[in-house]
Amino acid sequence: MKQPDRLQKWIEQGNVNISQLFFQFYKELKISDEEAMLLMHVHAFQQAGNPFPTPDEIGARMMCSQKSVTTMLQKLMQQGFIAIQQDTVNDILTESISLLPLWNRLMDCVDQEVYYEKVDSQKEMEGQVFQLFEQEFGRFLSPMEIETISMWMDQDGHTPAVIRMALKEAVISQKMSLRYVDRILFEWKKKNIRTSSEVTKHAATFREKNIQIQPVADNTAKKVKFYNWLEDRN
Question: Which residue, 61, 99, 136, 215, is the most exposed by fewest CB within 10 angstroms?
Answer without folding.
Answer: 215
